[in-house]
Design a protein that fits this description.
The complex is a heterodimer of chains A (417) and B (80). By secondary structure, chain A is of the alpha/beta class. Among the domains of chain A are: 205 residues, Rossmann fold, CATH 3.40.50.1100; 26 residues, no CATH class. The longest helix of chain B is centred in the C-terminal third of the chain and has 13 residues. In chain B, 29% of the residues are buried. Chain B is of the alpha+beta class and 80 residues long. In chain B, a hairpin with a 4-residue loop joins strand 2 and strand 3. Classes of the chains: A alpha/beta (417), B alpha+beta (80). At the A-B interface, helix 5 and helix 7 of A face strand 1, strand 2 and strand 4 of B.
Chain lengths: 417, 80
């Protein structure tokens, strides 16, 4: 028996065959993978997972792919016990799930793209596509290159090309569209519906988004098959947040986690300059009012997030919460994680750490609770945001006297303060 | 004949205007509403719009000019 039964509408429950489709033809709800958990339960075990590859494919029994071919080294990133940051925040069991070192392009997108393009290959697609200038484009272009797929990347034409060097190096076809972000969105959606391409976050989205569940699977395994008490994760489209929740719950369903294991409280982080999900949550709305993003946290600046309502539901259902961070707080969050744990994350990670700090200070976590913060991207990609926010070097002449006076003197002075 | 699945969000000050009906009279498009939530202060609709590519485009631009947020059903797929 197959582990995947069908695609199922998240809204009306109508079932569809397993094909590259993503919307219910009747109610327009998003389609999700419907697994045969009874069948999976017979095949999966902690032992089997342990003996699997050191990548997200060790959880293949809970992924909608049979023969992975793309992104074979993605996932299985470190879970770091953050002793120093924990001390600072009054948390004895704080962990950082560090996807800033994911393979091959240093963000969690390598997970979703690995699953999307592996499935795309199974469907027989020879072309991958996305609309992005950031982490998603990097990952689609890199993985398409190694998989021998053609790759199209769509961007608004007014963007500087240096923003996409990290994608151009993999030699995709970049299409610069005359128009703004909304125009690129609309065109992408039209193209996805007309051409026989795997547009990763459109027509293969049901498969793509399942890759994020592995962020929960890995954390549970790395904690010794336990779920954390609380999770703090960034909110962009809302997909990652809802899939982390789904991942922990699935492990319980297939009895990899004990049946009485408590599920984590889910805390979501947005930037104050783009917080449509946070606002819907706080105002008790079940729909999203789109926003025009204005924040340095560009990788999570999604003004019209498709999975926003589901993220709101997860935060409520799990007794979690949502919070926002300003540009200054985001930069402080990046600096705090770097100086305490030696991890250089990008602005999305800075947002998560800033929000983690706010919740810790507000007493949302008991000091001995296991709290996991998800760091989803790498700071070396967006170094420009830190310009003017870091200490300058101490300039001296090549003399021992000056070194003692200006450097040792200052360092001793500042450490005595 | 082409079609697009769209999400329309009306701001509060446009709720009382019969924009969709006017749009259908102005452009050669057909609409089929699949889901909607209209309240006194905000309204959203999910619909399928059928017509030629050019006519759909003109109809969408007209709605945008009249203050309606029009996005593909997938929401924002572009990421920076």
């Amino acid at each position: 028996m197959a582990k995947v039964k069908a695609l199922k509408c998240k809204e009306c429950g109508r079932e569809y065959p397993v094909e590259p489709i993503h919307v219910c033809e009747f109610c327009f709800g998003p389609l999700e993978i419907e697994y045969d958990y009874e069948e999976i339960k017979k095949n999966i075990s902690r032992e089997k997972i342990k003996n699997g590859p050191n990548s997200l494919w060790r959880y293949i029994d809970l992924l909608p792919v049979d023969h992975p071919e793309v992104g074979l080294a993605a996932g299985f990133t470190p879970l770091i016990k953050a002793e120093n940051l924990g001390r600072e925040l009054g948390l004895n069991n704080l962990y950082i799930k560090d996807d800033s070192v994911n393979h091959p392009t240093l963000s969690f997108k390598d997970r979703v793209v690995a699953v999307a393009l592996s499935k795309a290959k199974e469907f027989g697609f020879d072309t991958a596509a996305c609309a992005s200038t950031g982490n998603l484009a990097n990952s689609v272009a890199a993985n398409a290159a190694s998989a021998g797929m053609k790759c199209f990347v769509f961007i608004p034409s007014n963007l500087e090309t240096n923003k996409i060097i990290g994608s151009l190096v993999f030699d995709p076809i970049v299409v610069a569209v005359d128009g703004n972000y909304d125009d690129v969105n609309r065109l992408s959606s039209e193209i996805a519906n007309e051409f026989g391409w795997a547009f990763v976050n459109i027509n293969v989205r049901p498969f793509y988004s399942e890759g994020s569940k592995t962020l929960a699977f890995e954390v549970a395994e790395q904690l010794g098959w336990k779920a954390p008490d609380a999770v703090v994760a960034p909110l962009a489209s809302g997909s990652l947040f809802t899939k982390i929740w789904k991942g922990f719950n699935e492990l319980k369903t297939v009895e990899i986690l004990d049946k009485d294991e408590k599920m984590p409280r889910m805390y979501g982080a947005q930037a104050s300059g783009c917080s449509p999900i946070y606002k819907a949550f706080k105002e008790g709305r079940d729909f999203i009012k789109p926003e025009k993003p204005d924040t340095i946290a560009k990788s999570i600046a999604i003004g019209n997030p498709a999975d926003g309502p589901y993220a709101v539901k997860v935060a409520k259902e799990s007794n979690g919460d949502m919070e926002i961070a300003t540009n200054e707080e985001i930069i402080e969050g990046m600096k705090l994680l770097a100086k305490t744990e030696g991890i250089f994350t990008e602005t999305a990670g800075g947002t998560t750490i800033a929000v983690l700090k706010k919740f810790a200070e507000a007493g949302a976590f008991d000091k001995d609770e296991v709290v996991v913060a998800y760091v989803t991207g790498n700071g070396y990609k967006t170094m420009e945001v830190l310009e003017g926010h870091l200490k300058s070097p101490i300039h001296i002449k090549p003399s021992l006297h000056e070194f003692k006076e200006k450097v040792i003197g200052q360092v001793v002075e500042s450490s005595e303060k | 004949m082409d079609s697009m699945k769209l999400k329309l969000i009306y701001p509060e000050d446009k709720i009382k205007e019969p924009l969709l009906s006017k749009m259908c009279k102005t452009f050669d498009v057909d609409i089929n509403i699949r889901k909607a939530n209209v309240q006194e202060n905000i309204g959203w609709l999910e619909l399928e719009m059928k017509g030629s590519d050019e006519e759909i485009e003109r109809a969408i631009n007209w709605l945008v000019e009249h203050g309606v947020e029009v996005s593909p059903l997938e929401g924002q797929v572009f990421t920076e």
